Amino acid sequence: MNGNGPSKLVDPLEDPLPGVGTYEDFNTIDWVREKSKDRDRHREITNKSRQSTVALLHSVSDAFSGWLLMLLVGLMSGALAGGIDIAAHWLTDMKGGVCLIGFWFNHEHCCWKSNEATFQDRDRCPQWQSWAELITGTSEGAFAYIVNYLMYIFWALLFSFLAVTLVRAFAPYACGSGIPEIKTILSGFIIRGYLGKWTLIIKTITLVLAVSSGLSLGKEGPLVHVACCCANILCHLFTKYRKNEAKRREVLSAAAAVGVSVAFGAPIGGVLFSLEEVSYYFPLKTLWRSFFAALVAAFTLRSINPFGNSRLVLFYVEFHAPWHLVELAPFVLLGIFGGLWGALFIRANIAWCRRRKTTRLGHYPVIEVLVVAALTALLAYPNSYTRMSGAELISELFNDCSLLDSSQLCGYKQVSDRPAGAGLYTALWQLALALVFKMMITVITFGMKVPSGLFIPSMAVGAIAGRLLGVGMEQLAYYNHDSFIFKGWCSPGADCITPGLYAMVGAAACLGGVTRMTVSLVVIMFELTGGLEYIVPLMAATMTSKWVADAFGREGIYEAHIRLNGYPFLEPKEEFEHSSLTVDVMRPKRSDPALAVLTQEGMTVGQVEALVESTHYSGFPVVVSQESQRLVGFVLRRDLLISIDNARKRQEGVVSASQVVFTEHAPSVAADAPPPLRLRGIMDLSPFTVTDHTPMDITVDIFRKLGLRQCLVTHNGLKQNTVKPLNYIHQNFPLPLCLKSAPSTKPPPAPPRPTSHTRSSRLSGCYMCVCDEKRTTLVC
Predict the structure, then answer these.
(1) pLDDT tens digits along 470-515
(2) Which CATH number, 3.10.580.20, 3.40.50.1980, 2.60.40.10, 3.90.226.10, labels domain 582-736?
(3) Which phi and psi angles does 631 have, rounded to 5°?
(4) In terms of CATH architecture, what is 70-110+123-304?
(5) What angle separates helix 422-445 from helix 455-479, to the nearest 10 degrees?
(6) Which parts of the chain have pLDDT scores under 70?
(7) d(Cα 469, Cα 416) in Å, to the nearest integer?
(8) Exposure winner among 253, 287, 380, 537, fewest CB in 10 A?
């Protein structure tokens, strides 16, 4: 007591403190607590809405805010994706030449404005000049070829250097695909800055530069990261999403769907991708909002029309010949190839990335990117199929030949029944070399310190293999149309086999082998190409690819990179094969020192601070007393430190000798004693508990499905140990580890009668949780 009267007791329950309930960087959120906070907030808004018109309007705006946020995410992501597509196309063409009537035109747009371009030579017009024409005045001859070759390498090195320099200087998190980290974030892990404004700005700029440099990478995976950055930034405009980590992750799940929607023009495939591949928690409400956001993003991208074909899809196909049942055999062969390639790529890429992390190679990211860019440009330029961008290559391979096609892939002696000509044989040799090149260079490119997606390179490998097999089947049918395989459905002179369809199926098979996607991949492929009647071949190849790849390892490329980087992620698809109990995997062992606990009363501020300083645990169980280890609740380390620090500043008389109490009513203290510090408001009164004989497979399922941050383990109703938060999972043994105290030698006292501030956790009866009015009462 002082001269101004009694000092006010700071109670976090009545007077919320800034920072309490938040999480530190590289920590795991508590899904149960976050959902409980949101329910309390929603219940409070609903109750107030019955009292006044203003509160009713606030309730309506709160309900509508989620849809408004989805609208903004779709608009922003669609606009950015359109800009990225246009800029990447322009810079890619700049490696080959420049438009004289306006340097900002790419090759295609430049020749559109020319009246001298013919349909056969639509890529040649006087307004577009190669670097050799500008420098030497001619486009023919060896010297002109060397000049164009050197300029191609120069621009590739310049773009890659700018990309890796910007990433390293301003936003280190902007490198890579981003999908492994987003999967980890959506599972509840916190990586501050990974979805921030600087990451968004640098990723957008460097993605254009990296794709334009000619490196074997795509922009589709990074666009998911860009969309999630947009969503995270826009979440700060709405209190409901800014202050609740679980609600924010619902928005990020929808943003992942938006990313695929704008990357491929596949809104439905994007929603399924988020559901199947990325999201950890995906309620029905998020499904509807993901669909709406993907729709808005696709509409925005269609309005911008970055591909210039008035279509939303990236690789529109129009095959004239239907597929036949006999062709399922080569489609399954493509699935086997895709599965083998996926398994081989994952092992090779992870081995290379591990070498990068553990050797001096990882200390020189700029030099690594420049060397790989130089090697790629040097080997890619002589081959026209590796010189063009990945999207152009896939579009060329998907294409079905017509009378007006001038591509070497259409170098038939006659187009009607398609016997192979000299041009086609040349193209096949170039494609075979391109296949080997793409398979090798993609292994060392994915994972470098530039934005790098894996969808387009994987699809390119599969499309090349599929086109080669398709042409082989086509020639086999032409020269053996009387054999029992083709007789009856492939008559002489008929166009029976479509090589472009094989390229499409091969692309799906290889992408499925690398990522292990199934349903979403098939939907993305038919949205991507418009080939709705070819779903069955796509399904057959995709399923075969997954089965073959799973035979060599169940991890996809994203799960493999999550494990490589040591992120805390409990894979929902992975089955737990051990037959252990929680008591078997607890750390420390029975013979180790007792678990650090707090008592509900009797400890001073100094003792609590000393306990926190001497340990590194993320939280502490609260028990009745050291003698009676009966569980009362659980307190997080961060909340404890913030509350004590704020109490020292805001509550007079709080010193190291002040008593810390977690009971509902403050105990009576002597007149000359310092005032107690009440911290009941920061305590979780209903922590999740299991017994020490709970099987570990059940415990792991509990962590997966409830999204727990920790789980308390009891023995005969007494507090025994704590399952650590997910961010302490050991890499070699991906299970929640436990902290265990020595069992009490005294018999447990009789349980107190449950009141408004006590709880019984006896195993031999009914569990009863009776809490204050701000929490749900649970009686069984």
Answers:
(1) 999 888 888 877 777 777 777 776 678 888 899 999 999 999 999 9
(2) 3.10.580.20
(3) -70, 135
(4) Orthogonal Bundle (1.10)
(5) 150
(6) 1-17, 113-123, 307-314, 403-406, 414-417, 493-494, 587-591, 717-780
(7) 20
(8) 287
